[in-house]
């Protein structure tokens, strides 16, 4: 090649980061523009974007933990719903928020265990296994829900000292309730675990070529079990977020399809934690915009149409990106040991 | 699975039939037992609850009529799911397709005047079916042309259908009779109504005919053969020169047609108008019905009857035994679990593992064609 090394590097650099950098520049410019015009609305929309993205990014992390180990989790919706309910119930009867959140995480993990049992041990079709969890969650929460229960408080924002006082960035990033902070940290934790630890390497090996992984002495079943259970715990945290942080109460079917939207977020994020976070923020923005439009009352669109926005966006994303992003090679296929 | 070439003795046929219903039956029994444990644990009498449930569903002519009315849409949504299953597609969108069928039938039912009774009803039914079918074409096309998995797209389309029909019932199609403040369409005309003979709703007969039609289509036509081949092995189907994309879209359309008629029948035979939020879980119930019926068009009927009876009798159960109606949802979910996890049931019944051909694979990864 005749091209000088520095030029080739530049091209490579651009190829790898170009789209990301351009998008970031455009987004930052747009935010600054709107902040200059209407600071309060911009702050409100951005803060709401981050908070709306929490259950989606946690759900997407749950989905990708499973799928990186080749287990499709379509039961995220049910895991979230059950966790939201149990977290709420525990809070109602103990008055403790932390206990409630812990219970939510545990019930999410338990349902993860059920999914792992169905799809890894029993080798039931994973889509059906997940659907079982969803229907079970609707049934159980509906049966045990009693109108009139109320939670003892909800998780409140914790301003991070002087950081929260920075204009624009402070109120958006550093004045959030605990699960919102946790979700951001978890994005990086999962990223680190998946790409920089032996466990992550094993997980990806199991997801791409379980036979080879098995030959190398990796316990395929164990890796799948652990990933799906940990994923379930993340979905459980998302559920606890919904009942104890976002709303401070439980409503029937309160997950409203977020578990499925999370799967689209995961696919849009190309099965990576950081990509999923970006996608979740985009979806969060769509939802935040939707609420802003609904209550701003400036535009004359029927509220039902505005409400469809996140769901339409999900379909568009799926239609546009599924073919282009490559799922783990063994995704959805039960592993049969030889001999 | 496939039609047997050699002659089978009657006894063989009986034992095969027995084996084929053993798993669903075992699942139902296990689910009812666990349901009973939950009822007892929450401080009520399981026996009284189930007795009240059965009496409410089958105790008198009125009970039978309610049971059959509840069974009818379940047969249709179960058929929708079962039919798509045959092509390896998981149509969770029966809900949305049903809503579009229901509101379209209502619209034709109240807005078109001057048609003779039978014709008007038939036109409204057809309109409902077509509306549902077209809505089902969407996820089919999305799957074939973009690889977007139908499980997610159909669920998203359910939410969109809910929003859209809600908008229609609140806006352009709203009942404008003085005093009405709720979202609903006007009452349909008498000429678009489906009759009920004694305790037998006409819609139930339609559902039986639809099951027979689905069976005929799947087992006795070239299209049915193609659908089943695509479901078992899309690569082989493509290699054999079948148009897999066309088959997938067509399957979704037919599947959604069933759901659409289900909605239309509900509007014309039971509700008499469209109201948002009716039968909110029919789409999911269809999955349970389809799997309980072993995705067989005729198997769907007894499965739907069971669930329909539970729905019809749950009122009485709540009234007489003070058990919340939602227990039926729990029992239903458990049934689905045990049917899906037929390894557990088989293990409990000490039966041999499912033959290879009986398994349906839906989750060979996202976007795989």
Written description of the protein model:
The complex is a heterodimer of chains A (339) and B (369). With 339 residues, chain A is an all-alpha fold. Chain A has one domain (52-155, 187-321). In chain A, 73% of the residues lie in helices and 1% in strands. Chain A has helices at 5-37, 39-68, 76-94, 97-121, 126-144, 169-173, 178-196, 198-208, 210-215, 220-247, 258-268, 273-296, 303-307, 309-321, and strands at 158-159, 175-176. Chain A has a two-stranded antiparallel ribbon. In chain A, helix 3 runs parallel beside helix 5 (126-144) and helix 12 runs antiparallel to helix 14. The model of chain A has no long low-confidence stretch (mean pLDDT 87). Chain B has one domain: ABC transporter involved in vitamin B12 uptake, BtuC, CATH 1.10.3470. Chain B has 14 helices and two strands; from the N terminus they run ααααααββαααααααα. Chain B has helices at 10-41, 46-58, 61-86, 94-111, 117-146, 150-170, 202-220, 222-232, 234-239, 244-271, 282-292, 300-321, 327-340, 342-349; strands spanning 196-197, 200-201. In chain B, helix 7 runs antiparallel to helix 10 and helix 11 (282-292) crosses helix 13. The chains are: A mainly alpha (339), B mainly alpha (369). At the A-B interface, helix 5, helix 11, helix 13 and helix 14 of A face helix 6, helix 11 and helix 13 of B.
